[in-house]
């Protein structure tokens, strides 16, 4: 079984919240043809997309062509809307969560759903997470790497993470609103340098801020192979060692990092081999970033080309780890 843990979806008829709430930062889906659209933000093109991003039948066709059995559906990060009023962001979250749940219910053999929550308000976030997990039947929550510039170890987020541990809610952390983006206007460096760096900052903050030590049963997966985090981990350990007056944890970062999960979107078998040795074969899950340009095609290619993997290890990385992470016990079906 091949499970693509990292794919994005958006409702075809996303309501125009920019008009409803009179704000320029709301993403608006503007159809350009029967098979494509642009996501507009503030009157400017944010991203051009194809109908693969909303049409389940297109996705299923691609899955059949590329040998994928299941896709895990998650929102596009630009829709997180943490900057908005909590009540308005909750509207956006509910629209997407309802759409993802409906898509999964219509095609249960092909899709698994993750929800989103208005993380700028802990009470609202927990309320919508409760609805996602216990009413809609979604399998986890996707969150951003920061909330309006506050890292994920912000004290205001502690009740959210506590509830995630209590309810055993898997979290998928995806970069958004990346640090240093004002220095990355050229070459699309925001995607190739900014996002990996932003993800590393999120992972390091969760560890050094004591969140992972406080909640040792939290299940967290980082997008894009964890960005640059796996490769700066020894440097984080060295910082913990030489600056004892800054420590908030009993153990060095590498101890807590073993709790993390990562998708396989690294493009290079050398990186997969390194991550397996550092974090373990049970902590890596195939993910492609379908249907965007930087995605891996076909999904799982980097795992297939990691020659030293046994058949058992490949089965784990290509599907079993994702199902286990999402608390799905039925390995051959839902």
TrEMBL record:
Protein species of origin: Brevibacillus brevis (strain 47 / JCM 6285 / NBRC 100599)
The keyword Cell membrane belongs to this UniProt entry's keyword annotation: no
PANTHER family per UniProt: 2-AMINO-3-CARBOXYLMUCONATE-6-SEMIALDEHYDE DECARBOXYLASE (PTHR21240), 2-AMINO-3-CARBOXYMUCONATE-6-SEMIALDEHYDE DECARBOXYLASE (PTHR21240:SF27)
Enzyme class: lyase
GO molecular function: aminocarboxymuconate-semialdehyde decarboxylase activity; hydrolase activity; metal ion binding
The protein, known as: 2-amino-3-carboxymuconate-6-semialdehyde decarboxylase
Keyword Magnesium belongs to the record: no
Keyword tags: Decarboxylase, Lyase, Metal-binding, Zinc
